[in-house]
Write a structure and sequence with these properties.
The chain is of the alpha+beta class. Helices cover 41% and strands 23% of the residues. The chain is built from nine helices and ten strands. The protein has a seven-stranded mixed β-sheet. It is globular, with a radius of gyration of 17 Å.
Length: 216
Amino acid sequence: MLKSLRLKALSIMKALLSNGLNPIIHGSITRGDVNKKSDIDITILEVVPSYKVEVALENSGFKIMDKVMIQASPRHTVKAHIYLDELTTVTFPLVKMTKIEREFYRFGGELDFEGLKENIRVAGVDKRLMLIEPTIHGHIESSILGKEVEVASRLGVSVNIVNERVRVLMRRDNVGRTGVYLKYRLKEDEVFEEVLKRIASKDPALRRMLIQRDFL
């Protein structure tokens, strides 16, 4: 299962790389603890024109099933999500990410194309707040609660991202799935950047964030 998911991810990442884009993959595929519901989460970390991503995918034979713009809260980066199927997504920020937003991917485990091609597995934390550490024949799981500083050092991230993920995921456990501030499904002829500007013209909080991130 892991091999199959990684081969599919490699083909998508190769398509993006061949068009000058620099993707990573993150989550269970990088750690190795996959199951039948595992997503393929490919992310481009820098701001890129959305048309370049779409052209790169379509020219390599991938069909775009859906396009959704999501912002977790008014202070978070707005991200574009391109769905190739229900479990396969290419994501990229529409405005520059903060340091802690960048660390989110390393916290969960990330690999670039070469790392994935070499079949490397990396440590990362899953949604149960369990640190997954790969071994030769599988992996070791351990709770990160009470070991936030140690886990941050192990993963090469700040304690801030570890504490934030603990807060968010524990709140989700207590109150159920939390909502998002903005979620917009694009029509076939709409462009991410144009839609974002249109929505921001009517939303002061969103417009303020975009100005702070040099989008407007």
